[in-house]
Amino acid sequence: MVSPTVYGHCFGDFVVNETDDTMSDIRHSLLRRDALSAAKEVLYHLDIYFSSQLQSTAVPIVDKGTLELVEEFIFHVPKERGVLPKRMSSLQELQLLEIMCSYFQEQSKDAVRQVIFSALFSPQGNKADDSRMAMLGKLVSMAVAVCRVPILECAALWLQRTHAIYCVRLAKVLVDDYCSLVPGSVQTLQQIFSASPRFCCQFITAVTALFDMSSDDLIPPNDLLEMVVTWIFDDPRLTLITFLNTPISANLPVGCLDLTPLVGLVRWCVKAPLAYKRNRKPALTNGHISKLSKEEKEEEGVGDRDLLYSKLHLSILQVLMMLQVHLTEKNLFGRLGLLVFDHMVQLVEELSRLVDELNPLNATKETELSLDRLAQALQVAVASGALLCTREDLRSLCSRLPHNNLLQLVLSGPVQQQPPHSAFQPGFYPHIHTPPLGYPARPTPPAHSQHPAHPPHPPHSALPAHPVQPFLPGMAFPYRPIR
Predict the structure, then answer these.
(1) Beta carbons of 174 and 144 less than 8 angstroms apart
(2) From 23's CA, which of 94, 211, 212, 357 has a CA 20 to 30 Å away?
(3) How far does the chain reach from its first CA to its final CA, in angstroms?
(4) How many other β-carbons are positioned within 10 Å of the β-carbon of residue 47?
(5) pLDDT tens-digit profile of 49-99?
């Protein structure tokens, strides 16, 4: 299989490997065919072209002439100005999608499949991209419907290597097809969990980027929410598939999706109580609050949804606790933060705006729940090494938020030490031994307990007189994921 690093650089630069005369002959031959026949011929050309390259090199390169054939005869972008494109009928387009499905299903070489998929669907920043994305959405939607695992695996790698703007567009197509247009069709999408977990992981990352709860239109549909929660609650490790199977040394393209959907899922859990409260905000009629909306009256539905977010929050905490083992095994503890601090800054800013917006509506209960979830996520993320920051960073981060007892405990209390056998990069995860605010200071240890040749607070271990309380899943603090 082509590695992610190789895959990411296959199509960035064009090298002309065919002579102009040869490409011209191929093009004139294709112009004499009907639209479907020409598209089939280009797909056949791609198969021969890349299969031949892969016999002699591990890094196949698409030449400019071949890319132009793809854009002209599959995505119907004319090469010459003033020339009307050959358009396929709906039936011909369906037939081409079926041909593509069959080709990717029957192609036995992973490397060839992945390279051709990228040659077809990697955005090039030109006018062919809209047609390229439309065809991709239809192909992946068909692959979900008929469970074509090779296409889903190619799409998973595409989602990992492509700019997030395009990933979100693909996610929206699938959500519209399976969560909006046809009632009950979400069950078809849900069944791919066992067929292609890697695709599911990338799909979750994309939909959490799409539905960021920044407005009422960007709240995840109930069917989508239930499906994602079911996937993750059944197997929380699903969220780590991309991270565990990606060489960390690979330089991901700027603007691509995160290695895990954790940031987006934390955002869902933390913002949900206030976002749905805003969504149910009663309208004002002649200065008076109108009757409760239909959604607000559906208490049973609201209760089910709250339970889903509680289950999701619990699952995310479990995933964060798993991460310490994985980061240590990869020698990345204290060196790689899967929850980027800047993303947490953005989340807290969004949460602060929601609190300010809903303050007149007496959203005390919702605010408390959101802050509790934020505190729990911060506590476990820092303890597990998923979030790299200092205690002062956390205090500054949360300074604008309303007071919350659990959050105050996290901002002032101890955190887990780094395992002594793991590598540590100074400056990423300084250990804090200050007592929690409101507690008496620990007594100063006797002078004889400190060796003069060593500093009183070594970076990797605490002195016996200054024990550091580790994070324990059973520690007594107000853990309330379910309301």
Answers:
(1) yes
(2) 94
(3) 46
(4) 16
(5) 888 888 887 777 778 888 888 998 999 888 777 666 677 889 999 999 999
